[in-house]
Amino acid sequence: MKFPKITIYDKYIFNQILVTSLVAILLFTVVWIAPEMLLNTIKRTLEGQYTVKTAILVIIYELPKILGKAFPVGLLLGTLFTFDKLSKDSELTIFRAVGMSFRRIIAPVIVLSFIFTYLCFVTGDKLIPYSVNKANAINGNNPTTQYIYTQKDKNSIPTMAVIVSRFRANHMNNVIVLDFSKRIYADVHQLSNIYHAKEGETLPDKWHLKDITQYEISNDGIFIDVKKLPTLDILQGESAKNAYILMTYSIKKEREINNHNLRNYIKLLKKEGLDEEYRYMLNKYLQRFFHPFVCVLLAIMGALLGFSKPREQRMVGFVIAIGCIFVYYITLPFFDLLAEKGVMHPFLTAVFPPAAFLCAIIAFYKSKDL
């Protein structure tokens, strides 16, 4: 297999788009980070909450989240600006006059767009989870929240429900355990015991509770005895491990989890029958693979919008580009909701926005008659 020969034209176009795209990314990052985030960081530094070093780290850790959106946007604007300038200077007319097809003209654009696609993927997989977790550690964002875990048997019948009122790391407070009886009625699962523990901790092979009050319940649903227990171990083995993962990940956003851990978390959600959370996370996971390729689509769109006639309005292309970016990002939460509620399969909700973009590009290409 022979690769096409790299010509002076390829180097020229590649370098021109690379420079303009980097400038666009820089401007996008400055505009995004300047208004609120930078102001809050400066304010906390002046109040003594941050040192100068910490303030710089906070800003650095904020950058990957912005770059995840800046890469495709910057590439679109960079490509559009470059081809608009080439068109204005009649250079595109010369390229077409010497027999270069549209596909050959945008060949260096495609190569650069695949590089940006890779950078976008790595940013979402590695940089964003790392930076978000580091920023949370600096800001002390380790929230306490409530969590409910239901243990089921092979027939999906509940055997135990654990209600954790507050937890931080592996320490829990005010834990209620509902121990279900083996007797099952048509409309309710009978309880045999209720345990209330003031505190507890999660260990690799079990959950260890302390200072417990046990309420024993008869088959008629009446309290028949109340006992005090110093300790109690629940959720042994794999159940303890799975419950801990579900509990800790319940307070995390998907951007805080890398691809490997997110894939394992999705498998666990499916195993535990948490359908809504499973569909939502599967949708976000698939987006990490499909959406970086939007860089390629936006680069082609930028080139198409840059092709213009000598007297054609220049601002039209930029307005269309900004409108496409706005529509694309504003519709993503809508598709997330469709996936979560089961209206559409997560694969379809993840692939539909890029596919719609591709269809729009094909239609626009045909309308331009290039």
Written account of the structure:
The protein is an alpha+beta fold and 370 residues long. Helix content is 61%, strand content 19%. It has eleven helices and six strands. The protein has helices at residues 8-46, 52-88, 91-97, 102-105, 107-139, 238-249, 259-272, 275-290, 294-306, 315-340, 346-368, and strands at 147-152, 158-168, 171-184, 189-203, 206-217, 223-234. The protein has a six-stranded antiparallel sheet with strand order 1-2-3-4-5-6, covered by helices on one side. A hairpin with a 4-residue loop joins strand 3 (171-184) and strand 4. Helix 2 packs antiparallel against helix 5 (107-139), helix 2 crosses helix 10 and helix 8 (275-290) packs antiparallel against helix 10 (315-340). The model has no long low-confidence stretch (mean pLDDT 83).
Write the layout of secondary structure elements.
Blueprint: H1 8-46, H2 52-88, H3 91-97, H4 102-105, H5 107-139, E1 147-152, E2 158-168, E3 171-184, E4 189-203, E5 206-217, E6 223-234, H6 238-249, H7 259-272, H8 275-290, H9 294-306, H10 315-340, H11 346-368
Antiparallel strand pairs: 1-2, 2-3, 3-4, 4-5, 5-6
Helix pairs in contact: 1-2, 1-5, 2-5, 2-9, 2-10, 5-9, 7-8, 8-10, 8-11, 9-10, 9-11, 10-11
Poorly predicted parts: none
Could you give a short account of the major beta sheet?
A: 6 strands, antiparallel
Residue share in helix: 55-70%
Cα(first) to Cα(last) distance is 29 Å
Overall pLDDT, averaged?
A: 83
Number of discrete helical segments = 11
Give, in order, the helices and strands: HHHHHEEEEEEHHHHHH
Report Rg. Answer: 28 Å
Strand content: 15-25%
The secondary-structure class comes to alpha+beta
How many β-strand runs?
A: 6
Identify the strand order in the major beta sheet.
1-2-3-4-5-6
The global form is elongated
